[in-house]
Design brief:
The chain is built from eleven helices and nine strands. Helix content is 34%, strand content 13%.
């Protein structure tokens, strides 16, 4: 990798398998499909060490002198701000580029943009794009690490990681849990990344949605499918609500948002079918009264939505640290 000279940092956290070490060897973080359980635990363990500022100590500036570019072809205040804060806490020079409002409108192609960005010699690109597969393509054309901040309806890996860490901090290991992912599965990159991660970690995954909001190949995800929300939520430990993504819908997928909430919105009545201590999650932004009732979104005893936001910064700090350390080369093979 030309132009990159990261310090050789040891990212080999104890994997819990006889004391063996599992160094992070991936150049990019493009999705959760194919990522091993040991790698997921590795990220979560490192992120755990970044949570909070309990003793007033500063985080080590492991990205000092490095350049992080947030390149967002789609608007996203929440994810972009989270990555910006993560980069700054680690000492990086952070540049935010709202490409969707500039170059693309002038007719520039994705490959043109990739060539331009590569010439600026960044160390890490965090990319969000409205087309599935676009981030993968861009990663093949640049010389730096790339983190997928969401591409079309494909994947959003750091969201799944922060969801996993939020759950682990509240419920411990994921492999004994039953998780229901509810709502617009068809258009949700968050759902896909979470399904891959949760299956890998050994959780039982249920998908709860009307037939119109499920992908045609839903069987390949290895999750139980429910069309009745009350049955789908029966005895679950975790409820992940998804935003109804009206902006991605061409045609009529639901009769009306009012009817959608009646059958698939989370309210007190439907929540009674889950375990008494079931946690409520949502990746945000929320459509209150469409996929979730406000009283549940704000329930301090059940909702962990605010915790997801806090944990998200720590997870993204871990991801930035790992991809930059991985570029140093520790004698292992770098995995694309």
């Amino acid at each position: 990798m030309s132009g990159l000279s990261f310090p050789a940092r040891d990212h080999g956290l104890r994997s819990g398998t006889g004391g063996a070490r599992a160094p992070w060897r991936r150049r990019h973080i493009l999705g959760m499909d194919g990522v091993s359980r040991e790698e997921i635990e590795h990220v979560l363990d490192l992120a755990e060490s970044h949570i909070g500022d309990r003793n007033g100590e500063r985080w080590p500036e492991v990205l000092g002198g490095r350049t992080l570019m947030n390149v967002f072809f789609e608007n996203s205040t929440r994810t972009r701000t989270s990555f910006e804060l993560a980069g700054k806490r680690l000492g990086a020079d952070v540049i935010n580029m709202a490409v969707g409002t500039s170059a693309i409108k002038k007719g520039e192609t994705l490959l043109d943009t990739a060539m331009t960005l590569n010439a600026m010699r960044p160390d890490v690109l965090v990319v969000r794009h409205n087309e599935s597969g676009a981030v993968q393509l861009l990663s093949e054309k640049v010389d730096c690490a790339v983190i997928n901040a969401g591409d079309g309806s494909h994947e959003h890996p750091t969201q799944a990681l922060l969801d996993a860490l939020t759950i682990r901090r509240r419920r411990g290991p994921l492999d004994q849990l039953v998780v229901a992912i509810c709502g617009d599965i068809l258009h949700s990159r968050v759902a896909r990344s979470n399904i891959f991660l949760l299956n890998t970690m050994g959780a039982e995954v249920r998908l709860v949605a009307p037939k119109t909001l499920l992908p045609p190949d839903v069987e390949r995800f290895g999750a139980a499918v429910h069309h009745d929300m009350r049955n789908g939520l029966r005895d679950v430990d975790i409820i992940m609500m998804l935003r109804l993504q009206l902006e991605r819908m061409q045609g009529s997928f639901v009769p009306s948002t009012r009817e959608y909430f009646q059958f698939y919105g989370l309210d007190r009545d439907k929540l009674l079918h889950a375990r008494p201590d079931a946690l409520i999650m949502h990746p945000g932004p929320m459509n209150r009264g469409v996929e979730i009732a406000s009283e549940l979104a704000d329930d301090i005893n059940r909702s962990v939505i605010r915790e997801q936001v806090e944990v998200g910064v720590a997870v993204r700090m871990a991801c930035l640290e790992l991809v930059t350390g991985g570029l140093a080369g520790t004698g292992g093979t770098v995995v694309e």
